[in-house]
Amino acid sequence: MRYVRYFCIAVFAIALIAVALANREMVLLKVLPAEVAQWFAVTPQVSLPLFVVILGSILAGLLIGFIWEWIREYGERAEAARQAREMRRLEREVARLKGEKHKGKDEVLALLDETG
C-alpha cells in the first residue's frame, strides 16, 4: 500500500514540475486594480514567475479550505468532548455504586459478584 502512495506522490511531483517548467515566464502581479490604486496613490505590484503565482494560489486555497473546515467542525468536536466527559463521569459513578453495593461483604464474594 505504501508503494501506491509513493507512486501517487511521484506522479503529483512530476505534474507540478511540468507545470513549473511550462510557466517560467515572468508576469506582473498587481494587488489593486488601476482605478482603485489611484484613490490610494499606491500601485503595489510585483514581478513573479507564473508558476509561483499558480502554485501559491493552490496553496492559499488549500490553507483557507483547511481553516474553514476546522472552524466548521468546531461544534462536532465540542459535542464529542462533552460526551467523553459525560462518559467518564458515568463510569466513575458506576464504580462508586459498585463499591457501595459490596460494602461490608467479604472481598472474595464481592469479586465473584463483579465478574459474573
Automatic annotation (TrEMBL):
GO cellular component term, pick one:
plasma membrane
Q: Which UniProt keywords apply?
A: Cell membrane, Coiled coil, Membrane, Transmembrane, Transmembrane helix
Q: Pfam family of this protein, just one?
A: LapA_dom
Looking up InterPro entries in the UniProt record yields: LapA_dom
Which sequence ranges form a coiled-coil region, renumbered to this chain?
Answer: 80-107
Q: Where are the transmembrane segments?
A: 46-68
* Domain of life of the native organism: Bacteria
Q: Where is the Lipopolysaccharide assembly protein A domain?
A: 45-94
Answer yes or no on keyword Transmembrane helix: yes
What is the protein name stated in its UniProt record? DUF1049 domain-containing protein
Q: Which organism is it from?
A: Sulfitobacter alexandrii
Phylogenetic placement of the source organism: Bacteria, Pseudomonadati, Pseudomonadota, Alphaproteobacteria, Rhodobacterales
